Amino acid sequence: MARENVLELVRSRRPELRRSERKVADLVLADPGRVLHATLAEVARSARVSQPTVVRFCGAVGCSGFQDFRLRLAHSLALGTPATHSVLLGTDPPEAVVEKIFDYTITSLDWARQRLDRAALREAVAILEAATAIEFFGFGASAVVARDAQQKFPLFGVPCGAESDSHQQLMRASMLQPGEVAVVISNTGRTRSILDLAAIARASGARVIAITGTRSPLVRHCDVALVVETLDNTDIYTPTISRIAALVVVDILSTAVALRRGDEHSRRFRAMKDRLNGLRVSDDG
Amino acid sequence: MARENVLELVRSRRPELRRSERKVADLVLADPGRVLHATLAEVARSARVSQPTVVRFCGAVGCSGFQDFRLRLAHSLALGTPATHSVLLGTDPPEAVVEKIFDYTITSLDWARQRLDRAALREAVAILEAATAIEFFGFGASAVVARDAQQKFPLFGVPCGAESDSHQQLMRASMLQPGEVAVVISNTGRTRSILDLAAIARASGARVIAITGTRSPLVRHCDVALVVETLDNTDIYTPTISRIAALVVVDILSTAVALRRGDEHSRRFRAMKDRLNGLRVSDDG
DNA sequence: GCAAAGATGTAGCATTGCTACAGGTCGGGG
DNA sequence: CCCCGACCTGTAGCAATGCTACATCTTTGC
Prior knowledge:
Two copies of one chain form a homodimer. Chain A is α/β, with parallel strands linked by helices. The first copy, chain A, folds into two domains: 6-85, Winged helix-like DNA-binding domain superfamily/Winged helix DNA-binding domain (Arc Repressor Mutant, subunit A), CATH 1.10.10; 116-275, Rossmann fold (3-Layer(aba) Sandwich), CATH 3.40.50.10490. Chain A is 58% helix and 8% strand. The first copy, chain A, contains 15 helices and five strands. Chain A has a five-stranded parallel beta sheet with strand order 2-1-3-4-5, with helices on both faces. In chain A, strand 3, helix 13 (192-203) and strand 4 (207-212) form a beta-alpha-beta unit. In chain A, helix 4 (40-47) crosses helix 5. The interface between A and B is large, with 79 and 80 residues. Chains A, B: It comes from Benzoatithermus flavus. Chains A, B: This is SIS domain-containing protein. Chains A, B: Keywords: DNA-binding, Transcription, Transcription regulation. Chains A, B: Pfam families: HTH_6, SIS.
């Protein structure tokens, strides 16, 4: 994997490194920014090892040399430093929380980007494009995503629904017809009710698309599964990145569908946006 | 600005560059990835200029040398290439939409991160920490953010509300009391109803926090304004990044507040998560 | 305790990025 | 029209960097 986050790689490979290489790994993990702007000689000196050891370390984490390693490190650092913020401390001031959560969110989005199945997405777009109506299902945080997706009906171009009441959901799923599409959103993909809804929707003749975080039981009840992987995290306080990644996937789906709807659709869309602007004050209020 | 996106910089500085330096700029903009993995000599050859010209180009865009330029380029590329995706084309296949929207989202988040006012955030956290109840207000896409924030009440640790009906909103705003907090979410900050709600909430004695995209009329009705700037964009089909940035800010607020609530709160939170797991199937279903 | 395998450091080399300087180009004034 | 100065641009050379072959030291298994 060429695009793998090299900082994560260093962390995971650390145990299987040789002793002196581990010194380099520790230095990198402790202060990646310093390593980034240092030369090979400086890194070797700081880690109290020889230069070739540093080079070997680079090779051990899948880089072709020190230069390559530095480039990848710059890449990873730009996306944030997941290694350092995975643990949010009670003593962290709000400023630290800002950095850590932004870092974490951006890194996770990059992670999801790399793992998103393009073929599945292409299929999902085709199904949505042919849909006569779309219903979004989700509970908890995923309900928010479903609501957001429903609000994008101007882009999808067909009636969209997102019931939040579980009885209404059951009714909607049961009444779906061939030609209509159910989009089932669940990060875990193991919530009982959501599995039921997917099965019912499918039995009703609708196509079913899943947006989920893992290759879970849910995918078995679906025509297409969009697996949106995010960074594993055990820290209870770390916000659920999954919903943000799911929102981005919804953005992608709606935009891709809209792009294929052509000029007439685009014209109406523009008119809608203009009317929406009428709800706003021009200057002060 | 040391952390400014160097690709954007190259694009904006291009006109004031000398002729041969412009050749380098064009090469960088045309294929940044290639430049990233090339040596100084290769870049010079590809751009049909001499090596010192490339070095001078690097200086002209604010880098201390070729090495530094390459590192910054890696940084920018990691965040995506905003220059190329700003225009989504009707002919784009879904794969291209994926890349462009991920790029755009990540770049925008980085943008927001750099501009977020840490002092204001610190103030907002202090206000929320002292709150006896929190009500979130928002319309349209911001309503989704409000709903999401409300769902984070276990983190905030006090009763949270997010009415979606505008009459109910008006009632809630009117009935707020000193000690309670209203969080008003509006990307434009110009929606009439939201301005009214902010004014009413304040008149009722509540503290008012705004989450908005620009320094707008809304900030005048608030105690603290969290301005979450995102990349300007005129393309009607480009998804509204603002709500994602707002969600991240909500994550930050809720996490920062939760971190200050201490062990007892943390224990109850954990118990809640465990019960939630009971709603899930263990293996297949 | 010895030998083999492995890990780490030393020394030297090719390449890289950088800079002082020279040649060339363009524009304005005599 | 020609000359002079300012300003680009390229050539040549240098210091330093990253890399590799080899030697030394450490560890491990018998």
